[in-house]
């Protein structure tokens, strides 16, 4: 099948999921066209089935806001015609589902019918999408999609709760390529560069936005390092990073915290990690937690949104209420206090991650594509 994938190219869950999905579909023989404003960070184009088309938005002094949706829908129309693309898969409703709908209409006017699958990722519903300024357009474009998927049951429930959705939403959980993530025994791991032998290594990876509750990460770590020797690896970039550095200084733990910035090699960091912290305010799924678990790293997280669908309380890690810093620090210590307990949690984390292997999830997307083509065909003939 010839598929156009529209996504955000930056570091962030939805872009990562869209890119990894496209890479795997290309491996399976589908022809994949990524259409976005910059080459996605995880996209290596070493496969003849993979293509990347950049959306350019020419600047004009009249525009206070550059009309990206317009340029994207135009690009979609041009690429569909040029490459005989059969299906649009848009990731993140804003503004991709809206631009996809416009492209569909423009193509329809020329007698070309193309189905659209919209995948909802989280903040496009829970934070940004439900804002009154966007709500009508988001509701409309979700309802106009031929098939809608969400990355967790929790996000599906939130979507029905906040929007007047008439479409059925299918849950397709996020995934991981387990063979790529698996840390083989004997693989060189540069742990000794980062910490002393007796220190536990705790890691947090995110886009450092408010929703991730970065101060909680630091405070949980502060409590942990009061009890046992430990180091904290902070991976990512975002608006909360500077304050996080200041907080570490204030607490006198700057020498125990390493800020890495964005990384394309999180597996190398996770390979020497003992515990992952994700105390988010909300998380539709928590892909970073799954990536950690796939590297056999247990997770201390909050219990909001889709996190309980990924992190299993008392098995792959522990879940607590948002802001329950003491409970999260206590649970962290329970896991890392001795090697035997840590090793059990590590095995469990990997076992749960295996259920989300791409091998299990990809056929669900292929089935959805077939369904979208059928839905589209039915709506033309009725
Ligand atoms: O906030 C982020 O982490 C970025 C955001 C995105 O769309 O790039 O992530 C959302 O989508 C991810 C992939 O489906 C989910 O794993 C994240 O949980 C979700 N973030 C939130 O819901 C806050």
Automatic annotation (TrEMBL):
A single Gene Ontology biological process assigned to it is: bacillithiol biosynthetic process
InterPro entries referenced in this protein's UniProt entry, alphabetically: Glyco_trans_1 (IPR001296), Glyco_trans_4-like_N (IPR028098), Glycosyltransferase_grp1 (IPR050194), Thiol_BshA (IPR023881)
Which part of the chain is the Glycosyl transferase family domain?
195-349
Residues of the signal sequence?
none
The record's GO molecular-function terms, alphabetically, read: glycosyltransferase activity
Glycosyltransferase subfamily 4-like N-terminal domain: residues covered? 11-179
What protein is this chain from?
N-acetyl-alpha-D-glucosaminyl L-malate synthase BshA
Q: Which organism is it from?
A: Flavobacterium piscinae
Q: What is the lineage of its organism?
A: Bacteria, Pseudomonadati, Bacteroidota, Flavobacteriia, Flavobacteriales
């Amino acid at each position: 099948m010839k598929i156009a994938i529209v996504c955000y190219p930056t570091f962030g869950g939805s872009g990562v999921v869209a890119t990894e999905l496209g890479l795997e579909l290309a491996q399976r023989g589908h022809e994949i066209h990524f259409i976005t404003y910059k080459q996605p960070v995880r996209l290596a184009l070493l496969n003849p089935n993979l293509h990347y088309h950049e959306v350019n938005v020419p600047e004009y002094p009249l525009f206070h806001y550059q009309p990206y949706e317009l340029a994207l829908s135009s690009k979609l129309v041009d690429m569909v015609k040029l490459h005989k693309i059969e299906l649009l898969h848009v990731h993140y409703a804003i503004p991709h589902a809206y631009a996809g709908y416009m492209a569909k209409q423009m193509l329809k006017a020329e007698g070309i019918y193309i189905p659209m699958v919209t995948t909802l990722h989280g903040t496009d519903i829970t934070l940004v999408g439900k804002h009154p300024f966007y709500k009508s357009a988001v509701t409309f474009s979700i309802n106009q999609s031929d098939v809608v998927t969400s990355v967790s049951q929790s996000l599906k429930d939130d979507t029905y709760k906040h929007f007047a959705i008439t479409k059925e939403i299918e849950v397709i959980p996020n995934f991981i390529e387990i063979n790529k993530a698996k840390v083989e025994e004997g693989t060189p791991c540069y742990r000794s560069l980062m910490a002393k032998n007796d220190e536990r290594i705790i890691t947090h990876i995110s886009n450092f936005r408010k929703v991730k509750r970065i101060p909680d990460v630091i405070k949980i770590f502060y409590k942990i390092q009061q009890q046992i020797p430990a180091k904290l690896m902070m991976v990512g970039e975002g608006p909360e990073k500077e304050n996080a550095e200041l907080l570490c200084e204030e607490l006198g733990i700057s020498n125990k915290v390493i800020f890495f910035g964005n990384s394309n090699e999180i597996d190398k960091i996770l390979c020497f990690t003992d515990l992952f912290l994700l105390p988010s305010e909300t998380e539709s799924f928590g892909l970073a937690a799954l990536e950690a678990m796939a590297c056999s790293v247990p997770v201390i997280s909050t219990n909001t949104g889709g996190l309980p669908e990924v992190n299993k309380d008392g098995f792959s890690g522990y879940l607590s209420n948002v802001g329950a810093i003491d409970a999260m620090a206590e649970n962290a210590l329970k896991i890392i206090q001795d090697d035997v307990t840590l090793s059990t949690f590590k095995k469990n984390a990997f076992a749960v991650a295996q259920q989300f292997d791409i091998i299990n999830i990809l056929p669900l997307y292929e089935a959805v594509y077939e369904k979208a083509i059928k839905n589209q065909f039915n709506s033309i003939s009725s």
